[in-house]
Amino acid sequence: DLVPVRLQAVPIVLTVSGNSPYRTVAELKAAGQANPGKLNWSYSTSGYQVMTVALNAQLKIKAEGVAYKSTTAAVPDLIAGTLDYALMALESMQSGAPCLRACTVVSNDAC
User: Which of 5, 37, 72, 108 has the fewest CB neighbours in a 10 Å radius?
Assistant: First the structure.
């Protein structure tokens, strides 16, 4: 017999390093528009990749995506400032606290 599976919805957060100069989405957007192709972001699944590409399109910025095997693997580079930003589940972002900062909640839906 098949048993229904329920997906758990988690907030998806636009995350930057705690030392990042970007404190708001507007600041990130301004930097991306002033320096096309200079910002970079991480993704660990095709879902996060699609969401970030859509976000970049909405912000009208061009930035380089960097693939990671997991969100957790990207956290040290995000903290260090090697990565400029990432979309991640709130619980993943909290694993890097207090060294990470949330700019905004992008979605309250499961990805």
Answer: 5
Would you say 96 and 34 are in contact if contact means Cβ atoms under 8 Å apart? no
CA 34 to chain centre: 20
Strand partners, 110: none
* Cα separation values, 109 from 19, 24, 58, Å: 28, 21, 18
Render the chain in DSSP notation, one character per residue. Answer: -----PPPP--EEEEEETT-S--SHHHHHHHHHHSTTT-EEEESSHHHHHHHHHHHHHHT---EEEE-S-HHHHHHHHHHTSS-EEEEEHHHHHHTTTSEEEEEEEESS--
Which residue's structure tokens are 């970007």?
22
Give the DSSP H or E segment for 55. helix 46-59
Are the CB atoms for 31 and 63 separated by under 8 Å? no
